[in-house]
Amino acid sequence: MTPLLEASVALPPRLAETRVHVSAGERIAVIGPNGSGKTTLLRALAGIEGQGAVTVGGEALVAVPPARRPQLISFLPASRDVRWPIPVRDVIALGLATPDPTRVEDLLERLRLGELADRPIDRLSTGERARALLGRALAARPRLLLLDEPLSNLDPAWVLRTLNYLEEVAQDGTAIVMALHDLSQLGRFDRVWMLDAGRLVSEETPGDLLASPRFAEVFEVEPDGTGWTLNPSADRRSSP
Fold first, then answer.
1. Separation of CA 240 from chain center
2. What is the pTM of this model?
3. What is the DSSP string of the chain?
4. CATH of the domain spanning 5-238
5. Per-residue pLDDT band at 237 (split at 50, 70, 90)
């Protein structure tokens, strides 16, 4: 089966040449220490910066017309700092190439934003803004979703609701590539891309990755059954 996403991208020195592929409906978690290149990789896959080639659904991203792009690929940045005094329903509608009030209302309901629909987005809490911006990213039903820390600033219930909804989206064939820090959620994904110092150093299933020595080396922690414990060898490396 031909992958939905095929890419070879780079942005030296922040991101070495990275070759990846993603199948339709696949959920990929992108992890790594701070500064490892997660955001840079997502921005390169979105065609925002970097060099290389990105193909989605057999179409070269650079050749996709602006009007068609929202149906093919959507990128949600990590920043929730929105300064526009635009109503939430209009923010969601910005994700559509053509008006579709029914789709906007559906997302307002799914993300429980109905009571906030007419409130300016810059008057919302950070978590509420995160949900509204996710709605914008989902609006056009893109074939590929690139999400940078979409779970940040969400309370535990909304972390689970968001992951449940994204699972439904993936079941409809949308591929999801998501950067995240909450390693306890890795089991919700099909594969994990682990980055370190601007390089993709591992592509494994969550279970295989968490049990690997490479994970302990990169993150300097190990799972201990109830959470995480510092990797003793990493502490020795950082000692004077």
1. 37
2. 0.93
3. ---SEEEEEEETTTEEEEEEEE-TT-EEEEE-STTSSHHHHHHHHTTSSSEEEEEETTEEGGGS-TTTHHHHEEEE-S--------BHHHHHHTT-SS--HHHHHHHHHHTT-GGGTTSBGGGS-HHHHHHHHHHHHHTT--SEEEEESTTTT--HHHHHHHHHHHHHHHHTT-EEEEE-S-GGGGGGSSEEEEEETTEEEEEE-HHHHHTSHHHHHHHSEEE-SSSEEE-HHHHHHH--
4. 3.40.50.300
5. very low
Residue range 163-191: mean pLDDT, rounded:
96
147 closest CA partner among 166, 161, 128, 120: 166
Alpha-carbon gap, residue 146 to 54, rounded angstroms: 13
Quote the tokens at residue 171.
Answer: 């079941």
Listed by start position, the domains of the chain span 5-238
